[in-house]
Amino acid sequence: MKSYFIFIFSITITFCSVDSDRSNLSDDKIISNEEISNESTSATPNAEDNSTISNLDNRKIIYFIAESVSNEHQEMLKEWVAISEELYFTQPNVVIENLYPIYLVQLDRNNPESALALEPVYCEFLEEEHKKLFIWDGYDSSRCGDNEDAREEYERNGLFVEPNGGVAHSQISSIPQRDGYNLFVSKTHDLPMHASSMGYVTLHEMFHIFQTSHYSTDSYDEQRMLNGRFSGDNPEDDVPWWNEGTAVYFSYIDYARTINDMSWFKDEMYCTLLCERDRYGNKSRLEIFKESGIKLNNITFSGNPEIIDKQIAYEIGAWFVAYLVNEHGEDKILDIYSLYEEFGFEKSFEIQFGKDYRTYLEEFYEFLDLSEDQIMGILLSK
Ligand SMILES: [Zn+2]
Description:
It is a single chain. This protein is of the alpha/beta class. It contains 14 helices and 6 strands. It has a 6-stranded mixed sheet, sandwiched between helices. Helix 1 links the parallel strand 3 (about 60-65) and strand 4. The protein is globular, with a radius of gyration of 20 Å. Zinc ion (ZN) binds next to helix 5 and helix 7.
């Protein structure tokens, strides 16, 4: 794996204004919290701040590391960030100005106290760096901001600790066009058992930064419209199948390519669709999906009929992407983002894939009725 991380110097920001403000803005929170791996959380105490900067040709990444995060986790994170940059941030149509700076907050999934202790550190930094007089800025729009929207958002979702006391999920919580930075909150995965999650979850979130970089609008709703999140039968529903399905697909296949083991990709794609799971009453996602009769593009982030959850849309969405890749190649997907602002999601999809997405989804459902061997047979092997 390449590591072109180079400068890493450490600054230590101290300051602790205790819990102060927090919060956020109005239409902000970008990608809703996601839980893209299955692990559990516990707790331990202690916290502190720790931040390092990696700066490569103005590609600035500032790390905020919770005190209890191990060195091993930090090294893995930085390595996978560098790999993601090389994979996604070098794509031909990416808009580099919207990629950086990245504020990368690494939390310890087993230690909410250390996550909570990082909040004032981060908020102080944001205030220093982004607070401007008399205009709404990237500090005001964060959950650190000293305004009502920010406080409400903080109360609703927390910052690095959720209101229920758990460590925040891995997510991107920013709109770079509005805020002037990307905030990537990363939660550790227990080692060595979940080492792969440190890889593919990092790829997943960095892929979201890549996606969002293509837009010029700073409106959260407009960005969601562009990336297909209102593509259900009810145009008001926020649906993850397309935007998340692509992130899941690329995170899985690029993880496998990087570790040079494509069987990892096949196993992951097999299991995500076909393994039986407790949470679905010992059925697979595919069984639940078929039994429910719900369309992929009608599964929402929340508020689905019982047993259906957003993860089904994420993972079957990834299979839909694999299905498209089999017919059109990966570049058609990586290129689509640069078409959105001119053509919108629906038309861009038709331009790239020759049919409208609803027709394509119907064909995909028929594909899901094929045998396991036929289904598995479409996956790329390199
Ligand atoms: Zn995601």
